[in-house]
Amino acid sequence: MASGSDKTVGTSSVISLDTQKRLVCIEYPAVVKNVGNMLTTLGGEEGVSKIYADPSKRLELYFRPKDPYCHPVCANRFPSTNMLLRVKKKTRKRKAGMSDAQQETPREVKFEMEIVGIVGSTFKFQGMSDFQYLAMHTGHNGEHISMYDKTLLWKLETEEFFTKDVPLFIPPPIFSRLDTPVDYYYRPDIQHREGYNTPQLSSENLIGLSRARRPHNAIFVNFEDADVPDKPLEAAVNNWAKHSSHPNDKRLEAEVRKLFEARPVWSKNAIKANVDTHPDKLKWLLPCMAYYMITGPWRSLWVRVGYDPRKDPKAKQYQVLDFRIRCGLKYGYSELPVKAKRSTYNYSLPITVKKNAPQVVSVQDLTQGMSIHAPSKKLNARKQREYAYVFREGTLPPYRQMFYQLCDLDVESLQKIIHRNDGSETVCTERDGWCLPKSNDDLRDAMSHMIKQTARSQRPALFSTESKETADKEQLNYESGEEEEEEEEYQPSDGSENEMETADKEQLNYESGEEEEEEEEYQPSDGSENEMETEILDYM
Fold first, then answer.
1. pLDDT for 411-461, tens place per residue?
2. What's the CA angle centered on 220, arms 215 and 223, to 5 degrees?
3. What distances in angstroms separate CA 65 from CA 68, 69, 507, one per listed residue?
4. Cα gap 372→140, rounded to integer Å
């Protein structure tokens, strides 16, 4: 603290600064007459402290804090380098009985200044308030009648309060997702070339496409179709010839053709992991060598033209398995250290700070910390890429939902389940293919058990405490092939429908026809909720 009478040089003063005192500033958008009421509108000291501790939240101000239907005004947090300065002005009073000459002399004035602290963060209310909707209804004579006494529970009420008729009043939690004005630039009508025909839209109520779809001329086959194509469409061959002028394209064509000679059925992710090329090249090349299965045990896979897996029992190793990690207290743990591709927390709301877009799992993420006995040396590039489509014991899947081919389940016990009926296959069904009935359920149960053991060894805190007797019983059931009744039923995760319906819907909804920008470096698929891309619309 300094005063005007000491340490003063001209009109300046020397003041000590305590850097340990950190303050937070709130630019309150109103005239404050009562500090207590002001704090109540912000949620009290406790509410402000919680918001300050969470950088992802915005400070909310409720002008009607007792009204649960009040929508808040939100403040953004900004870093600042301000100081709070307290200044006191002291004037010496004149003594009574002084003469006129003495009273004309200037009074002695002294200033005292003190730096209270440093303001490191400032909350500023820069947005507009959301639309407010009061709880009232209009009577028969046009009079507005309040509904607060009928909808809010202020005290203990009798049963009559809950059974009486009340006008329906269910306002949305927010009316506007934006609290700052934005300029909306209307896009002008697109000028097409002469001879352009507007694409036909389906009977559904769809918004028209901004440009004509770029066809890639792929052939789609359902499980019920009688025959499979023995050659690609001529348009697909011409399309690839038009886009394969570089010498590397010929090399790519030879590599992919060699892959289909060694294995007639591939997933697109597996192909991308085995060839080094831009994914857009595969959009033009794959229709020249394979057709796309829409339904059945080989759905969402590319099959070499001329090959019919429904007539070859050996094709069961190429069938697809829709595997989803089981999470929930029912299974003894609430979550696993496996990233989700999408999350409801990425949905932008006025009360939250806008987050960055969800990041796709990188190859480093897939290989880091997954193996129980991780080697000290770095895995080679091909080994790293295999984590995107190969399942091994002691590792965790890169995503919570994966489409594996049975031949890519690199575990001996799982392969025994797949090949239980080798040599005795009689009929190929749409659900189980050439495998025994419920083989997929057995595979999911065994894989879930392996993943649970792997996660338990890495993060024991995720699992609820189990008695030794329960753990021993679970192990005995697994070794004997008997699972509890709860485990026998496959439960889709994350609110999905049954696996067949989900896959078909995602095949129809995956891409909008716009060409996506993808990096040259290999990345696991980030275009669909399932790990295996369902690019049906992109090839129409």
1. 999 999 999 999 899 999 999 999 999 999 999 999 999 988 888 887 666
2. 170
3. 7, 9, 48
4. 72
